[in-house]
Amino acid sequence: MFTRKASLYFALAAVVLILGLLLQDWQLASMVLPLASMFFLANFWGLPETIELEISHLVVPADSFGDEDISIQIVISNNTGYQLGNVEVDELLPGDIKLKSGASRVLTRLGARENFALGLEFRSPIRGHYQIGPLVARVQDPFGFYLVEERSEAEILSIMPRPERIRGAQLRPRHLGPWPGTIPARTLGPGTEFYSMRDYVAGDDPKRINWKTSAKHARLIVNEMEAERVTDVMIVLDTDVSYCEAAEAELFERGVRAAASMASLLLRQGNRVGMVLQGEERGAVSPRFGKRHERNILFLLAAA
């Protein structure tokens, strides 16, 4: 496509030619020739008819707890059988990110079938989601009249709160799920805590026989255990910090880390856990199990 420079030169040539014809001033009209010759030379020594660029950038790691350096690995491949002498590589970065090494905008040249690699590194920013990119590669002719541009999609860098190890929470919910867990269910079933005793019946596990009580009553007695199950837990984090002073920002960050730590603990105990952000930032994650679901909760908390 034409650059802005080419459009201005073309408009200038058209104005000069029209004025020359209207005024019948051939010397004025002849001033178009130098401009026309520049367009001719740009086509003669300019860009190949077809330019194939393959670009990629990779953020490593894409998810972080904010205690490590982040790197961006950029690769530009010239799949054209011609040398490209004026290639600009531009990685668009948020203003909060300050590069530790490398430059986000460089000029280079690429030989036929040649690759260009660029590495950027920066310290991990504060908690949040950051858009890295898009990565833009521009190729221009020596006169700056023609431009070919390729873009790659932006990547998302997530700086999440790190869950801390905390002691077990004593939950006493009214309703429990059918899955085994760690919460006493106040009913008979598989568990580790004694609940009651009853007479032995055929098929009972001999390991459950209470021999001392059986000898006292002259019949076999077995121990019954209290069932332990899991429940659904929804954690609500108030994100309305507009009333907080700057000095209280650390207090809110502690609240975010506490929510992350509680969610991690409850998931390790086998519960289904969900998260709700209520206030300035809103969002929700439905209760589910597992380590992968923990990442979804931390991803939501990164935006709190």
List the helices and strands and how they pair.
Elements: H1 4-23, H2 26-29, H3 32-44, E1 53-60, E2 63-64, E3 69-78, E4 84-91, E5 99-101, E6 105-110, E7 115-123, E8 128-132, E9 135-140, E10 147-151, E11 155-159, E12 180-199, H4 211-217, E13 221-229, E14 232-238, H5 249-268, E15 272-278, E16 283-288, H6 291-302
What number of structural domains do the residues give? 4
- Overall mean confidence score, pLDDT: 84
CATH third-level topology of the largest domain: Immunoglobulin-like
Give the full name of the CATH homologous superfamily of the largest domain. Immunoglobulins
| Shape assignment | elongated
Instruction: Report the strand count.
Output: 16
Return the string of H and E elements.
Answer: HHHEEEEEEEEEEEEHEEHEEH
Helix content: 25-40%
Description of the molecule:
- This protein is of the alpha+beta class and 304 residues long.
- The protein has 4 domains: 4-44; 53-159, Immunoglobulin-like; 180-229, no CATH class; 232-302.
- Helices cover 25% and strands 38% of the residues.
- It contains 6 helices and 16 strands.
- The chain is elongated.
- The two termini are 43 Å apart.
- 20% of the residues are buried.
